[in-house]
Amino acid sequence: IYALYTGLASDALKVLDAALAKSPFLVGNAATIADVAVYGDVAYSDEAGIDLSPYPNVKAWMGRIEKLPGFKRYEDVLPKQDAA
């Protein structure tokens, strides 16, 4: 089942990479809620064992998102441990 999901992720990343080859963000030249929503999924790729190196446009886009004012990484706002 892992192979199924990584295959689906790869297909989605190919589509995302192709879309980001045409513009810096998903809907043109500025970030929108679409970018925020999709980034939230792609940000977990490392934990899922998905290599983003075949998707240079996705990696560059992630860098642009991470430079937006107020950006915080998910692990900074969603700790992995319960507060004691």
Features of the shown structure:
84 residues, mainly alpha, 0% strand
How are the secondary structure elements laid out?
Blueprint: H1 2-20, H2 33-42, H3 56-66, H4 74-77
Mind telling me the C-alpha Rg?
Answer: 14 Å
* Beta-strand content bin: under 5%
Order of helices and strands: HHHH
Total number of β-strand segments?
A: 0
Question: Termini separation (Å)?
Answer: 35 Å
Largest sheet: none
If you had to describe this structure to a student in words, what would you say it looks like?
The chain is mainly α and 84 residues long. It contains four helices and no strands. The chain has helices at 2-20, 33-42, 56-66, 74-77. It is flat and about 40 Å long. The chain starts with a helix and ends in a 7-residue tail after the last helix. The model has no long low-confidence stretch (mean pLDDT 92).
Describe, in short, the structure shown:
The protein is built from four helices and no strands.
